[in-house]
UniProtKB/TrEMBL annotation:
GO cellular component, one term: cell division site
InterPro entries (UniProt xref): FHA_dom (IPR000253), SMAD_FHA_dom_sf (IPR008984), Znf_RING (IPR001841), Znf_RING/FYVE/PHD (IPR013083)
Name of the featured protein: SMAD/FHA domain-containing protein
Domain RING-type: 183-227
Domain of life: Eukaryota
MF terms in GO: ubiquitin protein ligase activity; zinc ion binding
């Protein structure tokens, strides 16, 4: 991996919506790129200016509201920090030994503090590198996707309400005469009498098409269309 100290923002495929009276908020989800990706619970925080989120390895003494910890031995106890300034999010490496990577670019040399780097929606952050090939979960690096100010996606919005309406209409007597949408995986039409999967982001797929993604990374689900991540075993509220 490169030791350059500049990074390009990752492209976000999630639709953008105007924010209304919402303070800076961050959602940290697992970045799934293989069978050995480390899974962790989704982390959601509001980050007002002046508040610092400290990221590091989990220990019994690190339980605090402003700390985000991971059960991985390749993560330093004080690995990195995230904060907001002028409505923008920033990250820096705080002298970690195994490195912090932003979109595959290392932020600083080992045991050296980095300068601040701006975070963008959809960025991929990696803490450390796999040790011994990551065969044991405790020696895997932490790869996470950053979602910024997207709370509107997890609330009722025009898109989700319309998707649910279309889903219900597939069971109506008129369904066979109505024009159907397409499954974005096989590009075939979605219609009645088919086994379907309605994702938490409200995109609809044929169950046969989406099943490999459901099985390989359960309970984590990364939508192949909008790239939003969800925990399929999260409580229904």
């Amino acid at each position: 991996m490169s030791n350059e100290t500049s990074a390009l923002p990752a492209e976000s495929s999630a639709p953008q919506q105007p924010q209304e009276d919402q303070g800076p908020a961050i959602r940290i989800v697992p970045h799934i790129d293989g069978p050995r990706s480390l899974h962790f619970d989704i982390i959601e925080r509001e980050v007002p200016e002046g508040e610092l989120i400290k990221i590091g390895r989990f220990t019994d003494k690190t339980l605090a509201p402003n700390r985000v910890t991971f059960k991985s031995k390749v993560v330093s106890r004080g690995h990195a920090e995230i904060w907001t300034e002028g409505g923008k999010f920033y990250i820096r490496d705080t002298k970690s030994s195994s490195g912090t990577f932003l979109n595959h670019v290392r932020l600083s040399a080992p045991s050296a503090e980095s300068k601040p780097f701006e975070l963008n929606d959809g960025d991929v952050v990696q803490l450390g590198v796999d040790y011994q090939g990551g065969t044991e979960e405790i020696y895997r690096c932490v790869k996470m996707r950053i979602e910024l100010n997207r709370s509107w996606q997890r609330q009722a919005n025009p898109f989700s309400l319309n998707a649910l309406k279309q889903f219900k209409q597939l069971t109506s007597p008129e369904a066979l005469r109505q024009q159907t949408t397409d499954c974005c995986i096989c590009l075939c039409g979605i219609g009645p009498c088919q086994a379907l999967f309605l994702a938490p982001c409200c995109h609809i797929f044929h169950y046969k098409c989406i099943r490999p993604l459901l099985v390989n990374h359960h309970p984590g689900f990364l939508c192949p269309l909008c790239r939003s991540f969800a925990d399929l075993e999260a409580q229904i509220d």
